[in-house]
Amino acid sequence: MEKHSQKRKSKIFTKIFIVLIFLIIIIGILYLVKNNYIRDEIKDKINLIINNSNVTTSLKADVFITDGVVYISKADINNFFDNTITYDEKYNQIITCSETKIASMPIGENQIQVNSSNVKIKEGVIQKEDTYYIPISELGDVYNIKTTYVENTKIVYIDSLDREQKIATMKKKTSIKYKPNTFSRTVAKVEQGEIVTIANRSDYPVPEGWTRVRTEDGILGYVKLNKMGELNTVRENIEKQPKIEGKISLVWDFFSIYVNAPSRSEEIKGINVVSPSFFYAEESGTIKSNIGEQGKQYIEWAHNNNYEVWPMISNSFLNSETTSKIMQDYKLREILINQIVDYIVTYNLDGINIDFEDMYEQDKTYFSRFLIELEPKLNEIGAVLSVDVTAPDGAPNWSMCYDRHTIGKVADYIIFMAYDQYGLSATEAGTTAGCDWVEVNIEKFLGQEDVNEEKLVLGIPFYTMLWKDNSPSVVNMKSIDNVIPSEVERKWDENLKQYYVEYTKNGSNYKMWIEDEKSIEAKLNLISKYNLAGAAFWDKGRETSSVWNLISEKLGI
Questions:
Q1: Strand ordering across the sheet containing 498-505
Q2: Do β-strands 232-235 and 498-505 pair in parallel, antiparallel, or remain unpaired?
Q3: Contact (CB, 8 A) for 119 and 104
Q4: Considering the domain 248-462+515-555 in this protein, what is its CATH number?
Q5: In 312, 330, 487, 495, which residue has its Cα 20 to 30 A from 115's Cα atom?
């Protein structure tokens, strides 16, 4: 009886064991199904693949096709191609930019402008309810892309033409797998001799012996390397090269629009960029030029000394209202931009320095638009865009009129004019550029404004203020020793990194915070401390001649 009972128990345990094994097998199969057979493509709409990543689930609106033209929404263009794309209400058009192109596309029209040249496309921008749809397949030249629609698989795939592309020919008929696993589901079959595009991405890890591919029908999947022939590179990766190597050392060379450019023959030690005041914006959006024959000689002198020439264009002859009128009008901005480009090409200039000041705070976005639209045209000709801005916090028309974060993204260099801490309009006496104030604002640029340190150029003054009974007047650096009586004691302020003097003369009280080589050295030290792009100096002719040796040493130029 006992023996029979043990035998029964043994049979029960065996059955339980078999059931457990069966359950383990079932769980394993389910695991394989979950991880190797579930497919993530969407079958009820057109799939969009951008640079071998299926982005369909991230789209704000569905892709659709009209007469062979592929449309995606403005919001999706913003997400994937141009985060500055905008609707221009005044001219009822979409404006979009890439690295070297700007396109203006009137709603519903098939004639657009690309870099100010008329271009005819098959279909224009469409508006459906509150959404604008962009004919992406017609904008290959604008975005430097190739768009392909595969009707039988309902897939649109877009390739950026500045990215590397490799292809391979299949050795034999084989299956493309959903996952890099022999047991994974087959998503496509390719014939011997068919070409596949290598679609490896860092966000899709590929185990050894496998590669990720895209078929001619746009289907993404995995295949074993031994099923393919030799890889062929059909397009190299294009890396963006810096327009200038090393630190920037720029000196502004200011002269009135009513006089000729200065005649320069001597080398200026320690600089690699000059910014002469050649250009001034006018009311119509046009530019008044002050180059002339002497300006041509100036450019020749600069290039002979291996200096780049980034002339300054100023709005100093415009009031805030007129500047606003230009900034808010796309066509006036376009006139200004095209003239800048024409002058750069005509005179073989290396870049431009935009110095627009005293603008309305509400024009902050429009000024950024001006720069956004200028940048592609300068990139197309290899010219540098530098933009002057003030300290982040201050008066609306002096400080709050700049979107420094956007400018820092758009421009090659953003120049912080680190002056005047206390200027001609100040109601109390103070320093022109105390080192502590300069440093605090550098940290604001890099922190709250999120400007890349490698784009930030520190502007340094070659002048200071003499305060007579709290009334200021400008004194050039080279003239300071002639202004201050020789018997006056100079006291060092460790926070400001400046000498300070105060004295009485003819019944008046005088104060000065001195800009000299020691104060400038302290500011130059901030460039290495924060790894800034370099320095800019306002302006040539105010300095002492020996300061260039210091600048050369500190900036390595």
A1: 471-476, 463-468, 508-514, 498-505, 491-493
A2: unpaired
A3: no
A4: 3.20.20.80
A5: 312
